[in-house]
């Protein structure tokens, strides 16, 4: 492949964002044929098409979407720099934080508190499933991701996982069951339960605990989303299995109570970044401030 022509890439970026060649040519004050020629030259240098046509609309190919992701970052940063130079100030770029969509919102709130206390920062919270988070981070569309999955580095991607917290997994009771003892006994055999789904490693830990104590739980609901487990714990009238941080506010108000912790059972929370020459300026202080969250 020949050296990338950023002039051609800029025209591709404008067309890809608009989806219409004619309208983009008018905005750029060039002829449609000249704009089309620029796109063709870029595709020729890459060796693969970036668009397909559906009627009068240009639709990105899979490669075209990948190229757009990079072009978006390149030219958005360029526009930010141009604006900053006009203003004569070096304001920080927005910090893009990816969060696992099933994660505890209370934990996320704790993590971003250092940012909330500053007046001169801007950040974005982007909730996605785990595979999409990893893809966005690898494509430099995110600065950091929060997840409960540790990502070891490999030959292709140098993930950097920092353990932020190990939250004990607890048995949580609604008010009518607050009288239950703070250790397992026969009274727990008669209760209904809401628990994490089999997609969560916490489910295997709970089932091992039940086997050890000869408990056959009456499971009425399960969920793989901590926000949904929180609602079930509040509204179902059943016992719930989750880290206490998920229902922090309800525990403080007395709406729910923690009966006991499952032995040797934890949910780990990680901050994952990439090994890069240039990290976002806020990341080092943020990670330092959020070590050992509770």
UniProtKB/TrEMBL annotation:
Q: Is Ribonucleoprotein found in the keyword set?
A: no
State if DNA damage is listed as a keyword.
no
Any Pfam family: LysR_substrate
| Alphabetical UniProt keywords | DNA-binding, Transcription, Transcription regulation
Residue ranges constituting the HTH lysR-type domain according to the UniProt record: 4-61
What Gene Ontology molecular function terms does this protein carry?
DNA-binding transcription factor activity; transcription cis-regulatory region binding
Q: Which family does it belong to?
A: Belongs to the LysR transcriptional regulatory family.
Protein's name in the database: LysR family transcriptional regulator
